[in-house]
Amino acid sequence: MKSKILILLALFVTSLSFSQRNPNNDYLTSFTYKAKDGMTSKFEKAAGKKTKMFNSEDGNIIWTYKVVTGENNGVYERYMINQTSDSYNKDRSKELDYWSDNVLPYADAVSGPQRWMLEKWASVGEDGPPKKYLQKTTLVTKAGQDEHVSRWIFRTGQVIEKRAPNYLRRVFTIVSGGNPNMIVVFNAFDEYGVWGDSDNTFEEDYNEMFGWKQYGVDRELMFSSLLEWGEYVETLERVDVMLPN
Fold it and tell me: Distance between CA atoms of 117 and 174, rounded to whole angstroms?
């Protein structure tokens, strides 16, 4: 197990410089918008129409979630899922023109698009339809200190798989459009409070799998590797009217 973890961490650290040139990688592109005052309904309706017109086929699907907690409450995050390196060579001018003419009058862009690479070694659960809720945790590591964060992410994933085999988690690292040391962790679920049937606490299962008091050691090392402001947690809810079908 130790050698497996070290190999995964090495791959994580070295992958970013070649990420967008590797045809075997999977990507996510995110877009962030906020409806203009009094135009929420018009924005959702127009964006939903555009999504059904342009984003309902494999390779171009977009899911939309709305932030419901924290300072970004009310912001919409649109995720173009299952992208490949070749996806960024496609001509999307018609789609972008439609968005600019028919949707953007009702909303403002909060930030430019961001491209993310899926860290497959950290995935938990099988792909499927979009879950109702996302718990999104954004982590920003200190430069060159992502080893402990990667270990924590990998090991917590192993514990999650033991406790809740049907759980869904995806982890992405930034490729373009943000701090190069940024990691985002999505925990997806349809109901609150569903966490498996283990008799132990999460910490007890962690220590049982990785060693006595290892939970506390790994957690402290993880936090010490983040910038002072380097963790932010939000809850997002699926916007059904803006789904592709």
Answer: 6
Residue 172: both structure tokens together: 């992405």
Q: How far apart are CA 79 and CA 46, in angstroms?
A: 17
Poorest-confidence range of 1-5, 64-68, 188-192, 213-217?
1-5
Residue type for position 158? Q
Task: Tell me how many domains the chain contains.
Answer: 1
pLDDT digits (tens, 9 = 90+) for 15-60: 444 444 577 899 999 999 999 999 999 999 999 999 999 999 998 9
For residue 6, what is the domain's CATH number? Answer: 3.30.70.100
What is the signed CA dihedral for 39, 43, 44, 49, rounded to 10 degrees?
150
Whole domain around residue 211: which residue ranges? 2-242
- Asked if 30 contacts 114 with a C-beta cutoff of 8 angstroms, the reply is yes
Q: Round to whole Å and give the CA distance between 78 and 80.
A: 7
DSSP structure class, residue 8: H
DSSP 3: H
Tokens read off for 194: 């569903």
- Residue 151 contacts residue 214 (beta carbons within 8 Å): no
Longest dimension (CA), the chain: 59
**pTM score, whole prediction:** 0.89
